[in-house]
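Postdoc handover notes: sequence design on the structure in folder B. Input tokens:
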């Protein structure tokens, strides 16, 4: 009897082990097949037809700069000149605002201004002597200033940046009065990019989008702009390395190297449908969250809030284009080009595993609950003084307070 019991247990053990081995084999085969498929999509991305400018499409190029002399001289100026020539001088307007740099960014931009003048490019390049120290030394105003935990009344960083970005958009109204309008607005950060990068970006989703963004890198393999990027479900990145996303819709598009549906992005260079910006009634502009909400220790990027406010975001979509990858320095750009050398097989395998683990065993519920409670409290408080207000960009908000300081900005 004991012998029979032992035999039954032995068979059960062998069967269990067999099932476990078969399951592990299935996982390995499935995992390997997925890696092969991803590698094929990466290789095919370089073989796709490159983007090209649409005949007669007008592009308004906007950019802000602060202490960017090195990259202006090494890459950016020449890239802008090449781009406007490729787009066609008559199809382009360049609007640049530089704000109180202490390096020679002004000198570099004067050189760009000279080169654009030779080409006959319409432009507005403003070089401001107002430094961060000047900004924070004036008597505090009613808007954009808050009382911080440091016991001071300080200038908020995001409304300041929103104001600078809006200054680059001022020529739109004057040009519209002259009968000059644009199809797209191209926002350029201080990044290394090529004309083909821009063409590929403009061609995202066959040119139909509210906004299309590149991927940006400063220290690969980590992507750079974590503040503004939200996946298709409105979540922050689940990891800062590939494949980044918690949302299956965003992640699956990335794995196939297709335009990735997201709720918000910025990431180096951004193309946006210009229609909302050129509205004669209430033109779309950058903003920060209300000061009263910021007092609850809540902040959101102006580059995320612009998508929340854009009436075209839901109807035409916001996309991140993985074929367009830019860098904040030459080595970063080189590290992510060409596409087939961007990711190694080991990075793909480890990235898939880490992403699954993080999606399975982590949650953003706690972060979101903190934000929801603070926003709900803010709404309730505003209602008591008959000034109730909605915040359309709640998915942009994070648990931070950011202020301007003489040498940049700080968390408080």
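Designed sequence:
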């Amino acid at each position: 009897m004991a012998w029979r019991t032992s035999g039954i247990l032995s068979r059960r053990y062998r069967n269990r082990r067999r099932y476990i081995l078969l399951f592990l084999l299935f996982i390995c085969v499935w995992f390997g097949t997925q890696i092969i498929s991803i590698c094929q999509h990466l290789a095919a991305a370089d073989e796709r037809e490159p983007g090209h400018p649409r005949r007669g499409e007008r592009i308004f190029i906007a950019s802000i700069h602060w202490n960017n002399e090195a990259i202006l001289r090494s890459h950016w100026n020449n890239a802008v000149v090449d781009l406007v020539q490729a787009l066609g001088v008559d199809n382009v307007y360049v609007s640049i605002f530089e704000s109180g740099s202490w390096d020679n960014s002004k000198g570099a931009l004067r050189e760009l201004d000279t080169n654009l003048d030779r080409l006959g490019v319409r432009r507005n390049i403003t070089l401001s002597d107002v430094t961060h120290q000047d900004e924070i030394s004036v008597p505090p105003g009613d808007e954009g200033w808050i009382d911080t935990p440091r016991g001071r009344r300080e200038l908020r960083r995001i409304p300041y940046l929103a104001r600078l970005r809006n200054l680059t958009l001022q020529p739109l109204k004057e040009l519209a009065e002259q009968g000059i309008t644009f199809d797209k607005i191209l926002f350029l950060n201080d990044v290394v990019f090529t004309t083909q990068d821009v063409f590929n970006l403009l061609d995202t989703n066959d040119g139909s989008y509210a906004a299309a963004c590149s991927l940006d890198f400063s220290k690969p393999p980590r992507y750079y702009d974590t503040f503004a990027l939200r996946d298709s479900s409105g979540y922050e990145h689940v990891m800062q390395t590939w494949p980044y996303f918690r949302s299956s819709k965003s992640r699956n598009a990335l794995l196939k190297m297709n335009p990735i549906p997201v709720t918000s992005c910025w990431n180096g260079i951004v193309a946006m449908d210009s229609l909302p910006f050129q509205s004669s009634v209430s033109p779309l502009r950058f903003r920060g969250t209300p000061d009263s909400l910021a007092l609850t220790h809540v902040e959101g990027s102006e580059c995320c809030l612009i998508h929340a406010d854009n009436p075209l975001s839901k109807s035409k979509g916001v996309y991140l284009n993985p074929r367009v990858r830019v860098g904040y320095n030459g080595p970063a750009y080189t590290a992510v080009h060409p596409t087939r050398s961007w990711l190694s097989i080991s990075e793909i395998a480890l990235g898939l595993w880490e992403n699954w683990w993080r999606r399975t065993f982590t949650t953003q519920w706690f972060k979101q609950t903190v934000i929801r409670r603070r926003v709900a409290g803010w709404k309730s408080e505003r209602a008591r003084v008959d000034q109730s207000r909605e915040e359309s960009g709640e998915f942009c908000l994070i648990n931070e307070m950011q202020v301007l300081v003489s040498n940049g900005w700080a968390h408080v």
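Context for whoever picks this up: The CA atoms of residues 48 and 323 lie 10 Å apart. Don't rerun without checking with the PI first.
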